[in-house]
Amino acid sequence: MKYKKLITNRILITGLLLIIQVVWMAILLLKLGNYSVWINIAFSVLSVLIVLYIIGKDENSAYKIAWIILILCLPLFGGLLYLCFGNKNPSKKMRKRLELEHRRLEKEFQGDDTAIDEIRALDERASGVSTYLKNASDYAIYKDTDSKYYPVGELMFKDMLEALEKAEYYIFMEYFIIEEGVMWNKILEVLERKVSQGVDVRLIYDDMGCVALLPGSYAKILEKKGIKCMAFNPFVPFLSMVMNHRDHRKIMVIDGHTAFTGGINLSDEYINLKQRFGHWKDTGVRLKGEAVWNFTLMFLEMWNAYRKEDRSLEQYKTHVHHPNAFAGSGYVQPFGDSPLDNETVAENVYIEILNQARHYCYIFTPYLIVDNEMKTALSLAAKRGVDVRIVTPGIPDKPLVFRLTRSNYAPLLRAGVKIYEYTPGFIHAKSYVCDDEFAVVGTINMDYRSLYLHFECGTFMYRTEAVMDLKMDAVQTIGKSRPVSLRECRTGIFGGLLDSVLRILAPLF
């Protein structure tokens, strides 16, 4: 059984196929040795043409610079590498499916205009952020929504199980990582029971996110249990050369009136039942009320783009209780971020919060791999007197990425940004809180993949209960963390060169 699992492991298969490909290319090049001069000329011309093409593209400058430098360093094969790995645009098939479904659902994105009018009367800058989100992502802002903040995954997991047990009509789940263990097995047990009670249970999981955690046929296994299941963007060994455009969202919607989201995947380390990198610090929110409709739409758009199961969404609205049952203070705006719209929605929201901050902005992020725009916003906020604090992991999950995160410390520290490393372990949270009024809790890391390539989601909150709870948690977490000094960022000549190379190539990771 052990050997059979090893043989069918998709990562092992992919590795073997890649080795075969490299050997095949090496043999081909040896065979073509007599034509090496002409081959060199052809590849060099290709690289020059590719550089000119990259310069003319309308995309992130850091991404373009990284590829140009790589091609200049590898003039023979750099252009070929770009043709194989440089296209960060979604496939035409994926784009067509999702754009068609989004247009079909456009009328469903209408919100309550009185909410934005009320916010405008309170604070023009808050209404500006909300208006941008509506215009850029179509998701409206709502009131009459209760928000609950969770400082760790185990607390949210408890409430997730309770909410699942109360489901009467439908359960929609969309996750980047699912791994068999205590957390997933308990959820699966409830899902199977709910299916037997007639509840419509649907699950989307990212195939690449689960490639080493679930068997390739797992969707079919769940379908046999009555759980409708879809593996997003299936990983095909050898053909899936570029692993971009993953579904990095974490969404659970129950009967249209309750939703959970945040950084918490369905795996035991997220609730600290499995120790990998010390204590796993994550955050999440539960919403009850009108704003849950945004997450319902987000899920159904992805689902029906591939399964085409629902001609009308009216049936999913009828189960939402009267708003007064979930009345909460403040305003809530769940939003999605997609690589299809060429709009860096999440990064722009983060930058806007920093630009408008007056007193403080506290940030949790597992990775600090930022472009010049984000670095400038962080630095300018600190320079004008805003108390900007960033908490990153004390124990890394990926040593090279951790080195890259640390390579971004020095310029921020010099600008006055305060950086802390979470001493007890790994911080996986993706949260912003600002001036006791604004907060964002979601799935969006401060790195190129989350900000530019993945399907992500977040929840923008203005003057809700969760905002102050997040602030209190940030203060307590900073108290448990170690402040980083500028002196620690001195790495010597060779270390500095390595950091420079890593920063240049960061958009390609």
TrEMBL record:
Query: Which keywords does the record carry?
Result: Cell membrane, Lipid biosynthesis, Lipid metabolism, Membrane, Phospholipid biosynthesis, Phospholipid metabolism, Repeat, Transferase, Transmembrane, Transmembrane helix
Q: Which SUPFAM superfamilies match?
A: Phospholipase D/nuclease
Q: Membrane-spanning residues where?
A: 12-30, 37-56, 62-85
- Annotated PLD phosphodiesterase domain ranges read 243-270, 423-450
Membrane topology, record value: Multi-pass membrane protein
Tell me the InterPro entries matching this sequence.
Cardiolipin_synthase, CLS_N, PLD-like_dom, PLipase_D/transphosphatidylase
EC number(s): the record gives: 2.7.8.-
Q: Where in the cell is it found?
A: Cell membrane
- Per the UniProt entry, what are the Gene Ontology biological process annotations, in alphabetical order? cardiolipin biosynthetic process
Q: Name one GO molecular function term.
A: cardiolipin synthase activity
Q: Which SMART domains match?
A: PLDc
Q: Which Pfam families match?
A: PLDc_2, PLDc_N
Q: Name one GO cellular component term.
A: plasma membrane
Q: Which NCBIfam families match?
A: bac_cardiolipin (TIGR04265)
PANTHER family, per database record: CARDIOLIPIN SYNTHASE (PTHR21248), PHOSPHOLIPASE D (PTHR21248:SF22)
Question: Any idea what this protein is called?
Answer: Cardiolipin synthase
- What does the record give as the organism's lineage? Bacteria, Bacillati, Bacillota, Clostridia, Lachnospirales
Gene name as annotated: cls
